[in-house]
Amino acid sequence: MIRICLSLSLLLLMLGCSSNPTTGYSSASLYDQQFHSVCVPVFENETMSRNMEFMLTDAVVKQIQARTPYRVLDDTHADTMLIGTITDIKLRAISKSRTTGLDNEMLITATINFEWLNLRTGKRIIGRERFSSSALFIPSQPSSEPLEMGQFALVQQLSTDIVDQLQAAW
Predict the structure, then answer these.
(1) Beta-bridge mates of residue 134
(2) CATH number of 31-165
(3) Which of 39, 79, 80, 84 is deepest in the core (most CB within 10 A)?
(4) Half-sphere exposure of 38 (CA within 13 A, CB side)
C-alpha cells in the first residue's frame, strides 16, 4: 500500500512539471540553451571612480562561470558578448551619529547600461538602460569600513544582478 501511494505521489509530481516554464513548474535550465559561451570585455566607465570597471568585469566573469552553463571566451570564439557602461556612482548618507554628526551608514549606488548581444546574428538578446544596484557600508567607528569595502560590496551585488538578467525569459 505504501509503495502504491509513493508511486502515485511521484507520478503526480512528475505530471506537475512542465518543459515550458511559462505553463508551470519546470526542471529545465534557467538559461538559454542555444548559447554556449560569452565574451565579457572590460566595462566602460564614465564616472570618476577609478578601477570600478575592472572590478565589475572581473566579478561578472566569476558570476557567469559559477552560476551559468556558459563558458567565458574571447570575442573570436564566443557565441555572445556582454558589454556595458558604468554611467553613475553615488554615495548617500543613510544615518548620522547623534554625538559626532559623522555618517554612520552610507549607501553606494551604481547605475549602468548593458547589452547582451548574439555575435552570430548581431541582434540584441537583452539590454538594460539605467540598471542600478546598491550596497551599504559603515564608515564610522567601530567598523570603520573604507570606501573600497562599499565598492566591493556594490560590485558583488551588481554582478549578481547582471547575471540574473541573463536567465531566459519566463
Answers:
(1) 109
(2) 3.40.50.10610
(3) 84
(4) 27
Please compute, for residue 160, the number of CA atoms within 13 A of its CA located in the half-sphere on the CB side: 9
Quickly state the pLDDT bin for 126 (edges 50, 70, 90).
very high
99-121 CB burial, b ≥16 within 10 A, e <16: eeeebbbbebebbbbbebbebee
Q: What is the 3-state secondary structure (H, E, C) of the chain?
A: CHHHHHHHHHHHHHHHECCCHHHCECCCCCECCCCCEEECCCCEECCCCCCHHHHHHHHHHHHHHHHCCCEECCCCCCCEEEEEEEEEEEEEEEEECCCCCCEEEEEEEEEEEEEEEECCCCCEEEEEEEEEEEEEECCCCCCCCCHHHHHHHHHHHHHHHHHHHCECCC
User: Between vectors from CA 101 to CA 52 and to CA 108, what angle results, nearest 5°?
Assistant: 20
Domain boundaries, given as residue ranges, for the chain: 1-29, 31-165
C-alpha cell at 167: 536567465
Q: What is the pLDDT of residues 61-95, one digit of tens each?
A: 999 999 999 999 998 999 999 999 999 999 999 88
The model carries a pTM of 0.79
Contact 64, 73 (CB under 8 A): no
